[in-house]
Each structure stands twice: as C-alpha cells, then as structure tokens.
C-alpha cells in the first residue's frame, strides 16, 4: 500500500469528486493490449472483407509491372507516368484497409476509459525528462508488470507463429507453383487465417490486462481518511455551500407544495397571516390531509394559487392556526380537529352544489376547535 507523508494508508475508495478530477486531468484506465487486439482484429476483418478487392488490385499492379516494355524503361517520361499510375493503384489497394485500421485505432482507446480531452495531460512535464525518475519507473512494480506482459506477449505470439508455420508452412511454399491469380487469392487467405490466429493469442493477454488496468487505476486514486475529510470540508462542509444547499432544498420543497394547492379541496385562512390547504379523498378513507401551509408571504402565495385554480377559501382563524401548528405536510389532521374540518368541508360541498348567488350557504362560524389546539392567538 502506498502511504502518505503523514503515514496514513490509502484505504478509502475514491470519491466521485476525486474520480472527476482525475478524469479532468486525463487519468483514466487504458489498456494498450486491448488497443492492439482491436487493431489486429480490424486487420483480420479487413482482410476477410476486402480480400477479393485487394487480390484483384494487386494482380493488376503485378501484371502491369511485369509487362512493362523495354522502351518504357529507358523513357523517363513514360517511366514516370507508369510509376505514378502504379502508386495510385497501390493507394487504391490500401485505402479501404488503412481507413478501417485508422478508425479502429482512434476508437479503440475509448473502449475502456471513455473519451476525454485534457489539456493538462497534453502539457509538457519536465519531471518526465529526469533520468533518475525514469530509472525509478523502470524498476517499479508497474515496470515489472509491463515487462512480464511483454514477455508473455512474445511467448504467446511465438507459439502461435510456430503453430502456423508447422501447419501451413508446406502449403505456403507450394504457392510458388500456382498461377498468379490463385496464388494471390490463397496467399491472402493464409494471411487472414494467420492474423486471426495471432489475434486469438492476444485474447489471453487482454483478459489479464484489462482487469489489471481497472484495478490499478482504482488503486492509484484511493484516498486516505484525512483526504476524504478534507474534501468533505472543502465542498459540502463550507457554511456558504451548506446555506446554498438548504436554500435550494427549501425552494424545491416550496415549489412542490405550491403544485399541490390546485389539487386541494379547501384552503383555510387566518385570513391574512395563515393559510392551510386540505385535501380529502373519500375513496381512500382516513382523514383530510394537509397538502400545503404557510404564513405571511407563503400564505399569500397559497391563497393566490388557490384563487387561480378555483379552490374555495374559508376564513377560520382559530382552525387555520390549529392546523398550521399541529399538522405537518402530507400528514392527516389530528383527531381533535375532525369535527371542525368536517364543518368546513360540508360548507365547501354545499358551496359547490349551489346553483346561484341566492343559494350560497353562509360560511361556518364558531367552529369547535379544542382548547389544546388554540395556540398562536397573538399572531393574528
């Protein structure tokens, strides 16, 4: 385990902020073996898909050069034109294959760690020019791992190559006895099969290297307990950050509360200082629920929102204060206020059933609010 100067070990998993900072600096997991495997497999796929096209182009180039007239060889202008034509045919031969390889070579590195552009990682670092630091890296654990991977790669590829020569060596030598077209076609087939077998040999190395790179990246970003505490203090521990978080939480809670006001059945008011919105779902049973409440400015917003949505306002100062102090949001009203709220809801239902101004019932008065709920009388 790596240790800090303070002697603390890196035992804590990296925090999201640490991971994001590392990504911003370009410190992401990368596997060279995975990139090599992807490029080799792209080459195999290119040989398989473009074999006929490449064989036809290569045959054309070889026939054109072998049939070159003697006069053209000693004519500079004709020889230059022939060379340019051959170069152009060669480019057409390799262009699809090289294009595929280029695309894969660009996309393969992002398969493990994703795409990231870090100007900090591109900036020159003078410490990398220090021979002593380079010498230490050569004999570090990572240097040893890279050496072992290189040796394993050599052993695997050598074993696969030996197997290929043992199985197909005689057939490759017999290509010289075949006609040009058949020799080119079979030669590309051998090339495709050989590349496929070599790529299969790299699978073992990729299966080892990818988990190791992920583990090593995670290990390097591990933190000491003190670093975790310092990061917490630096971000969420600062008073201004806490204050901002609490402000955002209050604003979101208030917005959600205001969204519930149009769904209420009635808003009981003080009528100016308090406002409590109640909703009663008869199908669910239970008691009415407080969906919004507030004092002063928030109470004014509740009343305005209710008026815009057509929710009735009932002025009942003792009941409004009792509901505000005794019941939290999304909670049912206490049993002691059932009778008083029932009077209010009955009035609301009569009000909705009234067909004209002459049929409007009188608002409820002297609601039965128990003495234990009569608090905050001085607030009005």
UniProtKB/TrEMBL annotation:
Classification via InterPro entries: FlhB (IPR006136), T3SS_substrate_exporter (IPR006135), T3SS_substrate_exporter_C (IPR029025)
Short name of one Pfam family: Bac_export_2
Region (Disordered): 1-26, 355-380
GO CC term, one of those recorded: plasma membrane
GO aspect biological process, one term: protein secretion
Membrane topology field: Multi-pass membrane protein
Top-rank taxon: Bacteria
Transmembrane segment boundaries: 34-55, 91-117, 147-168, 190-212
Location of this chain's protein in the cell: Cell membrane
Composition skew (Basic and acidic residues), residue ranges: 7-24
Keyword Cell membrane among record annotations: yes
Keyword terms of this UniProt record: Bacterial flagellum biogenesis, Bacterial flagellum protein export, Cell membrane, Cell projection, Cilium, Flagellum, Membrane, Protein transport, Transmembrane, Transmembrane helix, Transport
Family that this chain belongs to: Belongs to the type III secretion exporter family.
Reported function: Required for formation of the rod structure in the basal body of the flagellar apparatus. Together with FliI and FliH, may constitute the export apparatus of flagellin.
Cited PANTHER family: FLAGELLAR BIOSYNTHETIC PROTEIN FLHB
Protein name in the entry: Flagellar biosynthetic protein FlhB
Species in which this protein is naturally found: Methylomarinovum caldicuralii
């Amino acid at each position: 385990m790596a240790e800090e100067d303070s002697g603390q070990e890196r035992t804590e998993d990296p925090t999201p902020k640490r991971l994001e900072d590392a990504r911003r600096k370009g410190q992401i997991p990368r596997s060279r073996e995975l990139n090599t495997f992807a490029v080799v497999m792209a080459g195999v796929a290119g040989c398989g898909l473009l074999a006929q096209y490449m064989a036809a182009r290569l045959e054309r180039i070889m026939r054109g050069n072998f049939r070159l007239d003697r006069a053209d060889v000693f004519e500079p202008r004709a020889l230059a034109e022939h060379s340019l034509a051959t170069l152009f045919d060669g480019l057409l031969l390799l262009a699809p294959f090289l294009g595929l390889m280029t695309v894969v070579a660009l996309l393969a590195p992002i398969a493990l760690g994703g795409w990231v552009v870090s100007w900090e990682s591109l900036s020159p670092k003078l410490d990398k020019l220090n021979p002593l630091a380079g010498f230490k890296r050569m004999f570090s654990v990572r240097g040893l791992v890279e050496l072992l991977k290189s040796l394993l790669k050599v052993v695997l590829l050598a074993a696969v190559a030996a197997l290929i020569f043992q199985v197909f060596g005689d057939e490759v030598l017999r290509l010289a006895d075949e006609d040009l077209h058949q020799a080119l076609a079979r030669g590309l087939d051998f090339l495709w099969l050989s590349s496929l077998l070599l790529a299969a040999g790299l699978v073992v190395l990729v299966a080892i290297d990818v988990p190791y790179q992920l583990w090593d990246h995670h290990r390097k970003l591990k933190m000491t307990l003190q670093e975790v505490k310092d990061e917490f203090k630096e971000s969420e521990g600062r008073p201004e950050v806490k204050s901002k978080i609490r402000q955002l939480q209050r604003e979101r809670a208030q917005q959600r509360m205001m969204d519930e006001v149009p769904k209420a059945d009635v808003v009981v008011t003080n009528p100016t200082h308090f406002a409590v919105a109640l909703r009663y779902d008869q199908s669910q049973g239970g008691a009415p629920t407080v969906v919004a409440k507030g004092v002063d400015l928030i109470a004014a917003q509740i009343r305005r929102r209710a008026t815009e949505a057509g929710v009735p306002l009932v002025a009942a100062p003792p009941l409004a204060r009792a509901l505000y102090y005794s019941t939290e949001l999304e909670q049912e009203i206490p049993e002691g206020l059932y009778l008083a709220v029932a009077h209010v809801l009955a009035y609301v239902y009569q009000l909705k059933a009234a067909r004209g101004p002459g049929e409007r019932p009188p608002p409820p008065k002297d609601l039965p609010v128990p003495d234990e709920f009569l608090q905050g009388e001085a607030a009005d």
